[in-house]
Amino acid sequence: MTLMHNYARLPVAFSRGEGVWLYDTEGHRYLDALAGIAVVGLGHCHPAVTAALQSQASTLLHTSNLYQIPLQEKLADSLCRLSGLDAAFFCNSGAEANEAAIKMARLHGHQKGIAEPQILVFTQAFHGRTLATLTATGNYRIQEGFAPLVPGFVRAPYGDLATVRGLLAANPSIVAILVEPIQGEGGVRPAPQGFLAELRALCDTHGLLLMLDEVQTGIGRTGSFFAYQQLAGVVPDVLSLAKGLGNGVPIGALLARKSAADLFGPGKHGTTFGGGPLVCAAAQAVLDTMESAQIPAQAEKMGALLQEKLRHALEQHPDVQDIRGMGLMVGIELHQKPEHLVERALAAGLLINVTADKVIRLLPPLIISEPEIDLLVSGIVRLLEPSS
Ligand SMILES: *Cc1c(COP(=O)(O)O)cnc(C)c1O
Fold first, then answer.
1. 101, 255 in Cβ contact below 8 A?
2. Does 138 sit in the ligand 1 pocket, CB within 6 Å?
3. Under CATH, which number does the domain 14-42+295-383 receive?
4. Does the Cβ of 122 fall within 6 Å of ligand 1?
5. What is the pLDDT of residues 231-283, one digit of tens each?
6. What is the DSSP letter of 345?
7. Does domain 48-292 match CATH 3.40.640.10?
8. Could you say which DSSP state residue 67 is in?
9. Which positions are catalytic?
10. Is the CB of 118 under 6 A from ligand 1?
């Protein structure tokens, strides 16, 4: 095989998908409780996205950002209306959205006369795999082998306000805070109550940018369009998005308040592919469908149901330490790293993921129905039975 070995892939290939279901090349059916890692929120091959892609593919694929792209402008309007932010930049992935955020933070610092601006990030964070974003990531395994890392990051324990206050008091070069409202790769860890609101207040006091990484939590996943919309007193200055935005086509976005967005003057940042007509048509269909079918509210309802049923079935289970999450982003923390759980799930026709060693992560499509939730819960329960 001529592929590089950077992925430890499971021995299965899918040939077709519909809603929450995937079909492998031998015709076996799988309940997809991962949705391509929080990407396929509307389910596989949603007809509105398919129609938008088909129509756009036969009209115009790519022109570059040397020219106006009306579909990109329309998508920016939609995202700004939904988020309350003022302007959008489009890229191709979550890491790129965070790279843009990091560049914006540095411009913000230099504008304030700070020669070596620093960004405050957190333990167990995940922000991507490019050099700057893997430096921001709080996981040694992701950084190992890639020294020298990028300077300009300071780290605090996630949720630890006392340390954050101390760092801000001691270090006037900190210009921004980059944080996930719920740490995804880090083990489905929601920020402690009040943590983000206090970060917002600290950013206001110190003139810092609050930069929320909603690459995983955004686009309806947690039961609102963006997770911060369920947290009182938390509106970011900068918001990074990707995963669910295109329902499977690669698109990322950085949204910002006007004062921050204006830092990106002509020539300050760019990408050849970002925000092209094809991906913007798909993302517009995603947002329109999410709004008209009230998918975030549906995710909130189904997420509550999923957590309730998991708790009912597993709360007393000796292997289960905690069940937590928000909307359809749910983690089941086990006491120990499970043996071959993902492989056994696959063999049983269920696609799940284990992150942070011992947290079963469930990120099903947001269109999952109650009977499908029941199948998912009974599947998990069977996997955790001692004999299996
Ligand atoms: C997945 C993820 C990223 C990286 O996105 P890519 O599209 O893989 O570059 C960044 N931040 C968070 C919170 C993510 O979950």
1. no
2. no
3. 3.90.1150.10
4. no
5. 999 999 999 999 999 999 999 999 999 999 999 999 999 999 999 999 999 99
6. H
7. yes
8. S
9. 126, 213, 243
10. no
Instruction: Give tens-digit pLDDT for 146-168.
Output: 999 999 999 999 999 999 999 99
**Structure confidence by residue, pLDDT tens digits, 101-121:** 999 999 999 999 999 999 999
- Would the CA dihedral through 199, 204, 209, 212 be positive or negative? positive
**Distance, CA 363 to ligand 1 centroid (Å)?**
14
Could you tell me if 30 and 346 are in contact, meaning their C-beta atoms sit under 8 angstroms apart? yes
Distances (CA, A) of 88 to 61, 264, 273, 350, 351: 20, 11, 15, 37, 34
Q: Is 214 in the pocket of ligand 1 (CB under 6 A)?
A: no
**For the chain, percent of residues with pLDDT exceeding 90:** 99
SS3 179: strand
Q: How far apart are CA 226 and CA 349, in angstroms?
A: 31
The phi, psi pair for 52, rounded to 5°, reads -65, -40
* Residues 286, 201: Cα–Cα separation, whole Å: 33
Is 213 marked as binding a ligand? yes
Q: What are phi and psi of 16, to 5 degrees?
A: -160, 150
Query: For residue 160, with 0-12 CB atoms within 10 Å meaning exposed, 13-18 middle and 19 or more buried, which class applies?
Result: middle
Q: Which residues pair with 121 in a beta bridge?
A: 155
Q: What gap in Å lies between CA 345 and CA 383, rounded to an integer? A: 7
Q: Where are the domains of the chain?
A: 14-42+295-383, 48-292
Closest atom of ligand 1 to 130 CA is 9
CA of 266 to the centre of ligand 1 (A): 26
Amino acid identity of 93? S
Residue 388's pLDDT is what?
47
pTM: 0.98
